[in-house]
Amino acid sequence: MKTSLAFVAALLLFFSACTADRPTEVSSPNGAIRLSFCLADSGRMTYQVAVNDSAFILPSALGFEARNGVNLSDGFKVTATDFSSKDTTWTQPWGENKSIREHYNEMTVHLKNAAQTHLTMRFRLFDDGLGFRYEYRVPGVDSLFVMNELTSFNLANDGTSWSIPANFDTYELLYRTLPISRVDNANTPITFKTTQGVYASIHEAALTNFPEMTLKHTDRNGFKSELASWPDGVKARFAGGNFNTPWRTIQIAPKAVGLINSGLILNLNEPCALATTDWIRPMKYVGIWWGMHLGVESWIMDERHGATTANAKRYIDFAAANNIEAVLYEGWNQGWESWGSMQTFDYTKPYADFDIDEITRYAKEKGIQIIGHHETGGNIPNYEQQLDKAYQWYADRGIHVVKTGYAGGFPNGHSHHGQYGVQHYRKVVETAARYHTTLDAHEPIKDTGIRRTYPHMMTREGARGMEWNAWSEGNPPEHHEVLPFTRLLGGPMDYTPGTFDILFDKTRHSPRRKKWNDQDKGNSRVNTTLAKQLANWVILYSPLQMASDMIENYEGHPAFQFFRDFDPDCDWSQALAGEPGEFVVVARRAKQNYFLGASTNEEARTVIVKLDFLEKGKRYKAVIYADGKDADWKTNPTSYQIKERMVTANDSLSIVMAKGGGQAVSFMPI
Ligand code: NOJ
Ligand code: CA
After folding, report:
1. CB of 460 closer than 6 A to ligand 1?
2. Residue 17's pLDDT is what?
């Protein structure tokens, strides 16, 4: 009874809105989303949001708490309110869409309190959601210690949510489908469908010099921001009294695919900061990698060493023969013996059986790029000490793409996702820029769209990727239908799809295989069909897209033609249909070709898709890589069929998918 009275009171408050002498409300350009800012008598701030005139976010707190008497949360008075609008289209050097419309209405509320804290609350409303950030100016302060964020998200309605638990050290966790009201804590993006039928996702944009935000359940359908901290409990520290926070974002869409097609996160980042971008380009790659995860090769230099000169050249030959631009080598440098203990990797000392000069010479001769690798094991001081030298060393050898890794705890009680971590990841981005080096970060800080500002920060992991299938219970079938609606809303993911030996028939009983990971029970496998592996190259967007199996599993395989034809350098993309955790269909255009990927969870499913995204008046050869009639992810995962059809934009495709299956289609104009 108590709760429902409180709820009614909150609703009344919502609809009476704020009685202020100034307008404190702003709407999205199409008018569907409305946000109001309110100041209570105490000078405490709240905001609330309506979607299509229904309460969507009930009055929710704003502000921060700080140490040493600095007041960031109350006693505020509004000194001015400004309104403005923007409608432009900007282009990016690469991206799922090359051009993006930035169309919003902005409300900036200028506030001041008795402690002389100046605060600008900047609210931006787009048709696909909203963002707000805090811009604090506290005069006369040498250092400022943020201890707590009050920002809350009190959803008006319950519903279904998809998220991983909050964790300040890893995002490699299984997704949960839970009623919103039953989520104790979550990392962002957390996506939900409310009982009103609104799809939304809470995340952040432009995480630059701040700890990451996670969400903690408060009551009913409410959450509060919970920031990662420094070892001493401080959440964010600043020299001087000025700081801007990242944007707190809520993507909002009437359909689930609207979240995928939204440009909100990129639009809330700063424009490109690089003088030139012609050195940054999407590529397909293979690498000496999966063999180590399966346990038949090793990172260290022993009799099973993967990154040998001969093997490196074999991969270069394969790439050159298969329309693949790049090759990754892991386990090429000294220090892997210390992985899991001292983590003292040396980034300029190759192992003796990896002849870097000969390999780079050979790669150049064959027109293949090398993707370098820096595993840190989390030893940030060791990496930062070598940072410049390491990037210079690679650049001197013509290596301008680097995959980084942080598989291990950070030293001295630091968490991966605290302000210390965010600053470190940014330092690497800035260093790489100086050497015109493109980055692919594993165990990264979450993607908040900084690729708009730094397009060489191209892709990252930041969720359970393919590797988990090699040595654990693996990623369940629905994982791939949750990722596009959650993790990938932040940006590209280096998931590394493409296992063809789904049941590990070629390696499971190999005398070379050694268990190296505690989670390996000897019964690991990939939990999809083969066709779904191909579909994931399209669906799980990464401009550096890997065919991750060992190349011997691709040699002579008819289905590998899809990857040969595939082009990760998109001009346009659209999610056509889907529901989180159930299925998803995505189409992309790269130059004159189109690619389509569709996938389903454990349920077999048929989806009819109109091909009206193809260019009108043109005829295309569609090569369809489908599940076999008897395919089933569990019992018969490698059954597939390849069919060809002539199609135009007037046609439809009936996509038949097996349990845990999928379909990939390439469309090439005739
Ligand atoms: C974890 C990364 O995600 C994986 O790709 C890499 O092979 C290992 N760390 C070793 O660096
Ligand atoms: Ca990883």
Report:
1. no
2. 47
| Token digits of residue 204 | 């952040």
- Nearest bound ligand to the CA of residue 306: 1
Q: Which atom of ligand 1 is nearest to the CA of 442?
A: 3
**Structure confidence at residue 9 (pLDDT):** 44
CATH of the domain at 603: 2.60.40.1180
Beta bridge partners of 610: 652
pLDDT tens for each residue of 428-463: 999 999 999 999 999 999 999 999 999 999 999 999
Identify any residues that bridge with 45 across adjacent strands, giving them in sequence order: 39
Partners of 162 in beta bridges: 177, 191
- pLDDT tier at 21, thresholds 50, 70, 90: low
Query: Could you tell me if residue 579 is inside a domain?
Result: no
Cα of 338 vs centre of ligand 2, distance in Å, is 18
For residue 377 and ligand 1, the question of a CB distance below 6 A is answered with no
Picking from 212, 164, 206, the residue whose alpha carbon sits closest to that of residue 186 is 164
Which residues, 6 or more positions from 41, have their beta carbon under 8 angstroms from its beta carbon?
A: none
Amino acid at 504: F
Specify whether 312 is located in the same domain as 186: no
C-beta separation of 245 from 151 below 8 A: no
Q: Is the CB of 330 under 6 A from ligand 1?
A: yes
Query: Both tokens of residue 508?
Result: 């499971």
Which tens digit of pLDDT belongs to each residue from 152-169?
999 999 999 999 999 999
Specify whether 642 is located in the same domain as 516: no
Burial of residue 550 (CB within 10 Å: 0-12, 13-18, 19+) is: buried
Tokens 């990172």 appear where? 299
Q: Which two tokens stand for residue 566?
A: 């595939």
263 and 288 inside one domain? no
Q: 290 alpha carbon to ligand 1 midpoint, in Å?
A: 10
Phi then psi for residue 367, to 5 deg, are: 75, 30
* Paired tokens of 238: 């600043």
Query: What CA–CA distance (Å, rounded) separates 589 from 572?
Result: 5
Ligand 1, closest atom to CA 292?
Answer: 7
Query: Of the bound ligands, which one is closest to the alpha carbon of residue 333?
Result: 1
Q: Is the CB of 272 under 6 A from ligand 1?
A: no
**591 located within any domain:** no
Asked if the model's pLDDT at residue 266 lies above 60, the reply is yes
* Total length of the chain: 670
User: 172 alpha carbon to ligand 2 midpoint, in Å?
Assistant: 7
Write out the DSSP string of 29-82. Answer: TTSSEEEEEEE-TTS-EEEEEEETTEEEEEEEE--EEESTT---SSS-EEEEEE
Which residue from 171, 285, 297, 375 has its CB within 8 A of the most atoms of ligand 1, so it is best to mutate? 375
